[in-house]
Input
Amino acid sequence: MRVLKHRTAILVVTIVALLAISSCLPKPPSENTGGANITLYGFSIMKEALEKAIYPAFAARWKQEHGQEVRFTSSFGGSETVTNLILQGVKAQVAILSIERDAQRIKDKGLVTSDWHLLPQKGIVNKTPFVILVRKGNPKGIHDFSDLAKPGIKVIHPDPNSSGGAQWSILAIYGSELVKSEKQAGEPDRARALQMLEAIWHNVVATGVTPGSAREARTTFESGYGDALITYELEGLLLKEAGATIEIVVPEATIFSEHPAVVIDRNVPAADRPVIDAFMQFLWSDAAQSAFVKYHFRSSTNETLNQENKELATIKYPFTVEYFGGWNKAYPEVIESVFRDQVQKRK
Output
């Protein structure tokens, strides 16, 4: 009898202790204050536009329309890295990714159940072309991707295993030669494109730690490493704004990267769904698209908005991933079969 009473007493104490601990745990902002919190994970170059313009604009609109505060928790890194973190269980509710393949990877694991293609512009929230950054005065005489293949040129490039930007860059180089050879001879020359990619990759410098994202590669270049950096146009324009001694070289033919935004449905409770859905729709509003353009992205909805930014370059022969048949073909046929199986193994 005493044993039973003793066990009962222990059980009561344990339950009281657990209740006390649970009452001390931090609650979501919506429970604490009546406000809402959106957790967003994005690829590296989204940081400035979101934190300085998009978040404040949406929060102000939501506050005006619903009388509720909205806060954002966000994290940025290479697109593949961000995707892997989400797959490993971080509680991101929205992801803006560099490549659609990463969105598909999340969907394939059951974390995304809605179809982002039903969003405006099939889920593509903004876009930007790939360019080359060089030192002030362009001392190495770099005017196109082909010049990066010259002996002695030192190229900075992020890691294709972690960076969506790195994969866009590979498609930009390889596709550029396909497009130009097709313009010149009537059909794409794959041998020429492979040779160009090999020659440029031979000039990619080892800097100790390979940059894991486009933003890390930019930092490496800023630190004085290398003669050239292949990157998103907006990275060059942001550097110029900051007074960096660089120049932007616009290739004759280059790819426009297109960036999908998706809801990680598994991480969105019913109470948060209205504000999440409103934020997603806001991303394609003129207010948000103009903010993206201000930070040197191209609008995915309205080409007229792009005219607001006079710094955006004109590309002679632009192309998109659809030139390769979409990411479902571009990844296995170019990133894997051409780059990893041929170029990377030969270096």
Summary: The two ends are 78 Å apart (CA to CA). DSSP finds 13 helices and ten strands in the chain. Strands lie at 36-43, 70-77, 94-96, 124-135, 155-156, 228-232, 246-249, 253-263, 298-299, 317-319.
